[in-house]
Design brief:
EC 4.1.1.19 (chains A, B, C); lyase (chains A, B, C); homotrimer; Pyruvoyl-dependent arginine decarboxylase AaxB (chains A, B, C); Pyruvoyl-Dependent Histidine Decarboxylase, Chain B; 153 residues; 6-stranded mixed β-sheet; decarboxylase (chains A, B, C); alpha+beta
């Protein structure tokens, strides 16, 4: 089987670019994950996967990551992305939620906390804490807001 | 290289949620894949990858999976998702197809069988059988239909 | 961690199908990646990952791949997809960009070269060369244009 990740952190970034994909690329760079290969996952915190703000991803590494992102080319529009990791009180898995939309950072954070709470409720799990990271970006020409939970070893 | 999967099954689930992502999460739980990390693949059945309805996915495992899903927030709407695995008559790879749409389970099944047949025809492969799994869901507020072929080791 | 890829190539294909997903499947076959499991990545060329036009992907292998694709069911429409790998002058990572749209092959190539140049500029990296692969397809009924950089070991 593929190895199960052992560490996570939460990151976010907003940026402009000359195209939609380069705006996304620039937002990844701001979030500190611009130089690795993102492997998008839907999105569970494995048991014993611990928070670690300091791990360094090797250049080009295949990096399992849960993320939300939004790109807009409407000048003046406010866009936001958020990620939240629900850490369980007991030794089991947690849940990661991603959100993006045309809203403020605060609205994105409020929304995503509710999503994690619902996911824990449905699983009859007790929450220890929620790690949230969100960003808002006001579009100049072509902008991207990106938030993610990279998982690592 | 990454290890090639050796087993597969087919699953499906429909559910409501308070948001689109939690509806998706709840549909995954109904389908029995809600507590792992889905790694979406486009979608070949590896040679010697065998049907096994009974394997258990470890919590949080990185799980290669082919899936189709649809989310709707139109009350009363019928949505459906289907997955089909074309198993070859000879010892070679097969093909996995995913489908989702605003239709019934029967329509989804009919559509997806044709897709697998086309994929085998194009490859000059003979079909041994098609494993299909489909689900339909009538939306109350925010609903999701999800069908998948998880691949495992 | 997951193993970091060591080789890459660039491929493209355009095709018709009886459904959108089988058009995509047929375009993959034309591009030579139709019999493996595509694991989509966003999209860095790892350091020391070398161009190799000749590697053969095992049937059903989990294949990290950066790709752009577009499907259209508008008869007569011209669609195009392009991929470009920016290879750095120094020993570090490069950047892979994907593009697809309703345009010609030449337009797709021009656009994607600019995207790679922007990504290198932002990172203060010097370009050694750009490997580009693009395709255009004129839709008969349901068509797909697909371009990709598969990464391998």
């Amino acid at each position: 089987m593929l190895p199960t990740p052992k560490k996570f952190k939460v990151v976010a970034g907003g940026a402009e670019g000359r195209s939609k994909l380069t705006a996304f690329d620039n937002a990844l760079l701001k979030a500190g994950v611009g130089n690795v290969n993102l492997l998008k996952v839907s999105s569970i915190l494995p048991p014993s996967c611990e928070f670690d703000a300091d791990f360094v991803l090797p250049l080009g590494a295949l990096t399992p990551i849960a993320y939300g992102s939004i790109v807009s080319d409407v000048p003046g529009e406010t866009i936001a992305a958020a990620v939240a990791v629900g850490v369980p009180a007991e030794e089991t898995m947690g849940v990661i939620m991603e959100f993006s939309g045309k809203c403020t950072k605060e609205e994105a954070e409020t929304t995503i906390r509710k999503m994690v709470e619902e996911a824990f409720e449905v699983r009859n799990l007790e929450l220890k804490e929620i790690k949230v990271c969100a960003v808002e970006h006001k579009v100049e020409k072509i902008g991207c807001a990106f938030a993610a939970a990279p998982l690592w070893y």
